[in-house]
Design goal:
Pfam families: Aa_trans (PF01490). Helix content is 65%, strand content 5%. It is mainly alpha-helical and 484 residues long. The longest helix is centred in the N-terminal third of the chain and has 41 residues. The protein starts with a strand and ends in a 10-residue tail after the last helix.
């Protein structure tokens, strides 16, 4: 049974095959295989993307800002992230929210709603941000691997032993695993990785929270102050830079807008993808905010001014060592999945550009799929030579850069700062104004522009703080010689 379907000057042949078993293969209104995503899978993707390694630096970030500004800024970032994500989700379809033309990627949405130089600017910021996130996740995973080794060393040799560990071999091991996983062809096929990663993120966040609560109980007091780390512990200038850097760490902890459209493109309809995405964003941002408030605040309450940059690897806790090992193993498994969730849009973009710009004969040769039998799989895995080479080069590059510049807090703050304003706020606001034809100087237009302007100032401050942190780190570091 078959029919032709006319959409956007293209004709798709929509065939519905009903084999003997009665299974039906359906296609969506754009001729692509029917999407199967739900509120549950979309929420899993978002939580995998959001509750990443960023949660581990929140106690440190709260310590820089204090009991008033710390929780207030966390709540502000959650509100802005949710509100901007609803604006962005409404741009998935151009025109009618139920039947309009689909935008498969963030760049497609910008192209449909804004066009021109905005598209190139968005692409540069988005893909640079995804590249930076891959580096941040490689650093974070290696730190957790080292933490497991050091935790066991402290357990056997005592806390006074320095237990020096090098990060290079762990970064290489993480890179090798990512080379293998990066051969998964597309976003739809990593839903299982997202669910595993989401479960892991809850696991280590809960352990970090539990250890923070037990430390507060052990101390018998809540540490910290209303204004954060005191002058004397740090200089006035350091206090300013660290406060700015803390904003970048919080922005990084909430970032997922750069892959929101790609996640929305996995959702089935009806109901409209916008409604499902809005619900998934509400659930995931609410859950995330509760977690972040608890982890950031209890971590600060436990350690005060001495809050470590990474709650589970900074060795504020030594025991129970096996629980720390479980938490760090959960971080590693989570980051393995999160790396793929963030990199798939970048992989897809490069492969699409190659297809458009290479001659058809050349592309058909490099894009040839070779069936490789895999034990346990019914059908052979289709190995694509172009995918194998390009994605391997990408993973190797991010791994080498991570080995050269392994500054977790500074890298996290800088990535958060650079991506927060343009991707989370500016483009969603501008696309919403354009698609909903909001009149210039109307009260709604002014409010949206004020939101965008405020977030720009926060982004600039956070980037400045993170750059100051990197400059400070560079004074004492040697490439490829990082050890803890």
């Amino acid at each position: 049974m078959g029919e032709s379907y006319h959409h956007n000057n293209q004709i798709f042949d929509i065939s519905i095959d009903v084999p003997h078993g009665g299974a039906t293969k359906l296609y969506d209104d754009d001729g692509r295989p029917k999407r199967t995503g739900t509120v549950f899978t979309a929420t899993s993707h978002i939580i995998t993307a959001v509750i990443g390694s960023g949660v581990l630096s929140l106690a440190w970030a709260t310590a820089q800002l204090g009991w008033i500004a710390g929780p207030a800024m966390l709540f502000m970032f959650s509100f802005v992230t949710y509100y901007a994500s609803t604006l962005l989700a409404s741009c998935y379809r151009t025109g009618d929210p139920d039947t309009g033309k689909r935008n498969y990627t963030y760049m497609d949405a910008v192209r449909s709603n804004l066009g021109g130089v905005h598209v190139k600017l968005c692409g540069a910021v988005q893909y640079l941000n995804l590249f930076g996130t891959a580096i941040g996740y490689t650093i974070a995973a290696s730190i957790s691997m080292m933490a497991i080794e050091r935790s066991n060393c402290f357990h056997t040799k005592g806390h006074e032993d320095p237990c020096k560990v090098s990060s290079n071999s762990y970064m290489i091991a993480f890179g090798v695993l990512q080379v293998v996983l990066s051969q998964i062809p597309n976003f739809d096929e990593i839903w299982w990785l997202s669910i595993v990663a989401a479960v892991m993120s809850f696991t280590y966040s809960l352990i970090g929270l539990g250890l923070g609560i037990s430390k507060v109980a052990e101390n018998g007091q809540i540490r910290g102050s209303l204004t954060g780390i005191s002058i004397g512990e740090v200089t006035e200038m350091e206090k300013v830079w660290r406060s700015f850097q803390a904003l970048g760490a919080m922005a990084f902890a909430y970032s997922y807008s750069m892959i929101l459209i790609e996640i929305q493109d996995t959702i089935k309809s009806p109901p409209s993808e916008y409604k499902t995405m809005k619900k998934a964003s509400m659930i995931s941002v609410s859950v995330t905010t509760i977690f972040y408030m608890l982890c950031g605040c209890f971590g600060y309450a436990a350690f005060g001014d001495m809050s470590p940059g990474n709650l589970l690897t900074g060795f504020g806790f030594y025991n129970p060592y096996w629980l720390l090992d479980i938490a760090n193993a959960a971080i590693i498994i989570h980051l393995v999945g999160a790396y793929q969730v963030f990199c798939q849009p970048l992989f897809a973009f490069v492969e699409k550009v190659a297809q458009e710009h290479l001659p058809e004969s050349t592309f058909s040769v490099i894009n040839k799929e070779i069936p490789v039998p895999v034990p346990g799989l019914k059908s052979p895995f289709k190995l694509n030579l172009f995918r194998l080479v390009w994605r391997t080069v990408f993973v190797v590059t991010t791994t080498v850069i991570s080995m050269i510049m392994p500054f977790f807090n500074d890298v996290v703050g800088l990535i958060g700062a650079l991506g927060f304003w343009p991707l989370t706020v500016f483009f969603p606001v501008e696309m919403y104004i354009s698609s909903h034809k909001i009149p210039k100087w109307s009260s709604r237009w002014i409010c949206l522009q004020m939101l965008s302007g405020t977030c720009l100032i926060i982004s600039i401050a956070a980037a400045a703080g993170s750059v100051a942190g990197v400059v400070s780190d560079l004074k004492v570091y040697k490439p490829f010689k990082t050890s803890y």
